[in-house]
UniProtKB/TrEMBL annotation:
This is ABC-type glycine betaine transport system substrate-binding domain-containing protein. It comes from Paeniglutamicibacter terrestris. Residues 1-21 are annotated as: Disordered. It comes from the Bacteria.
Length: 345
């Protein structure tokens, strides 16, 4: 087992965010949690609060990496622009947990990670019911070849069916931070290797780069899903894992990252297809405490989520990573201004 420590700068602006801490890679226990709830609610279900306006300062949790911090800064500035008093909390490894623990009022997290966390909150499953088609609400549609794994739409539907006491899930964005495996076009063509199903036969010839914190679980899922035992595994520290330098420099032939990594596009990397058995969908979704939060805040948050597409998230990632990176607050303000989302830019 080798270890790779990121050092030096790429000649082009390379992303430097880490894999989401919210369990992007899931094991058997995670699959069981994902299958717990499926209801008829959708992402645009209204959130009922007692007040029209927010009358206290809201604290926004933010994740540990630059992209997560730019996102939190964007939502914070959107709320401030709507007249809501806000403050960003110090970065934390688990923003969702910060809200559930009462340390913050708003967090932006991945849909599967949030579904697992909120399912444990009292009365979370109160809205589970039979759907209009007559299918039981807690039945779990799964992906072919990936038993127990909810797809993107089903995960969002299950998440918005929850009614966690004291909290509310707001509209999910089209953008996501789902895990993926990437390789160069040369490696893909030499295989040939395009689909996860092709990986088993080639795996013993390939070096993998995986973030240290995710290595054991991802390797177990690779063995389980496609009988893949890599030639070697290089464990990447947070800096190296957030970049794509290991794979474009041929330090490894396959690297685990997330789909918001702008380095994938900037370096014309190939994303391995059909990796749903390895990575749970992580559509970006806000969760709030309902205590003292008014409809003005909810409207501002949902407005930003509606505007946030995958290419926007990649642009934010590109702005806050690499040698010419800007700080998260500046990147957020520039993006909001460019999209004309602020009343007073």
């Amino acid at each position: 087992m080798r270890r790779y420590t990121g050092n030096g700068e790429s000649q082009r602006a390379q992303p430097r965010h880490s894999l989401p801490r919210g369990r992007t890679i899931i094991g058997a226990a995670g699959l069981m949690v994902l299958g717990l709830v499926l209801g008829a609610c959708t992402s645009d279900s209204p959130v009922h609060t007692a007040q029209a306006t927010t009358e206290r300062e809201l604290i926004l949790a933010q994740g540990p990496d630059a992209t997560a911090q730019a996102l939190s800064a964007a939502y914070q500035q959107m709320l401030s622009d709507a007249g809501v008093q806000t403050k960003l909390a110090d970065p934390t490894a688990d923003p969702i947990a910060a809200v559930l623990a009462g340390k913050a009022d708003v967090a932006i997290g991945g849909s599967s990670a949030m579904l697992g966390a909120l399912s444990a909150v009292p009365q979370a499953n109160a809205t589970a019911e039979t759907t209009t088609s007559g299918t039981a609400a807690n039945s779990s549609p799964v992906l072919p070849g990936a038993p127990g794994v909810l797809d993107t739409g089903a995960t969002i539907k299950a998440l918005h069916a929850l009614a966690p006491k004291g909290f509310a899930v707001l509209d999910s964005a089209a953008a996501e931070r789902t895990g993926t495996l990437v390789l160069t076009q040369a490696t893909s063509a030499a295989g040939p290797l395009v689909n996860l199903t092709e990986l088993g036969a080639l795996c013993h010839r390939l070096d993998f780069g995986i973030a240290t914190k995710d290595s054991a679980e991802l390797l177990a899922l690779l063995r389980q899903s496609v009988s893949c035992s890599p030639k070697s595994v290089t464990e990447l520290d947070d800096e190296a894992a957030s970049d794509v330098l290991p794979v474009i420099g041929d330090e490894v032939q396959i690297q685990a990252t997330t789909v918001d990594n702008a380095g994938i596009i900037d370096n014309a990397l190939v994303q391995l297809e059909d990796t749903a058995a390895l990575f749970a969908p992580q559509s970006l979704t806000p969760v709030i405490t309902t205590e003292g939060v008014g409809q003005d805040a909810i409207k501002a948050i949902n407005k930003l989520s509606a505007a946030l597409k995958q290419e926007d998230l990649q642009d934010l990632n590109r702005m806050v990573t690499g040698g010419d990176a800007v700080d998260a607050r500046s990147a957020a303000h520039d993006w909001l201004t460019d999209r004309s989302l602020l009343v007073a830019p």
